[in-house]
Amino acid sequence: MGRITEDLIRRNAEHNESQIFSLEELSLHQQEIEKLEHIDKWCQDLKILYLQNNLIAKIENVSRLKKLQYLNLALNNIEKIENLEGCEELEKLDLTVNFVGELSSIKILRHNLNLKEIFLMGNPCADFEGYREFVVATLHHLQRLDGKEIERSERLKALQNFPVIEQKIREQEKAYFLKRSKEKEEAERKIHEEEEKEKQKENAKFLDFDKYSYKDIDNTDPSSPLQKKENQQPVIEKKVNKKTPEELNKEFWEKPTLFTPESRLETHRFLEKQRKEKKKLSDKKKTQNPPRTLITADGRVLNVNEPKFMDSSLIDVDVQPTYVRVMVKGKAFQLILPAVVKPDSSSAKRSQTTGHLVITMPKVGEIIMANRKVCKPVKNPERTKLQEKKRSNQIEKLEVDPSKYSFPDVTKIVQEKNKPLRQIQKKPEVEPCDNDPDFEDNPEVPPLI
To answer: 429: part of which helix (H) or strand (E)?
Structure first.
């Protein structure tokens, strides 16, 4: 059953920044509402109210809407026009395709002096003889009925014949009330039968254990005739095949029914039951699906692509040295990487326009190979100590002779062309000897040839 709640009104008041007290227009159509409530307390400034295609059976709780100008209650289960006297500014009332059979109930609309137009087509009262003349003569201020303008001559003629028309309307109303009482009794009988069927189905779930005999194996003799009789398998009657959902659906829609408020409610409850069953099946399938295998038992990573486009808040990225995994609302997208990457230096970015997700994963520069030893030179600690001691005893000095080349010779910067180039003589190579204090004998250095 749909109900009018504060949350429902706020969700349908987005154009008014979800403020309901100052709301002037409200649309609550196709919400499966069965009772009209709370609106006159929460939205007293309403001018336009749409409530078409619901299951409302009675007009109520709208008398405080003093500013209401247009009320749409088409395609509901209303049988009587009532509780509209307080809607002083009401100009248009739409009751198309309802179940108004008490046509005389429109007399309460005489207090709505601003009412200019009303729709009653599709109601049982619209089939009454003298229906239009009765409405025109009853509501003097009405200008249009069922979309057709009321002319002055038509109103004068209806007023002249009003006593006769009113008598005909009352007789037709009595016949309709008798018919409606039978329809209500038939509807109550069907509801009672359905309740009995549901109880029988629930009772059928429990097996009749009296048909089966249970024995105590330790205290009975299997050779006894009584035991032999009990050991016989009980005969199980063949169960009648249950109808499939498709067959039940076809049977429901092909079954002839009257167009009544009860039939509309029955159709609504049948559709609601189907929706619940479909939801149960979908939930059951979700629970039955096994979890996706991302890594096998032997440690091998698999390529997986499950998710669809989702909000960024539902995306979780996990970068590992050999693979990357993106989880989107419980679904996985996993790829094996062709090279080893650095997880700490990786980043994930998503475009706000296209929704593309870009994951940057830098490769590892140097790959450390296992089982490979690096040779290091073995140092002689005693020898290194002696060398350091010798170096500390030596004092390095920088000597400069001020008598020689105290200033640069500018005349000899450019050489003459005829003057042959002076060759630089190579210094004789001095072979190191063991007695040289700067000599270091490193056994790892190969000898010079």
So the answer is: none
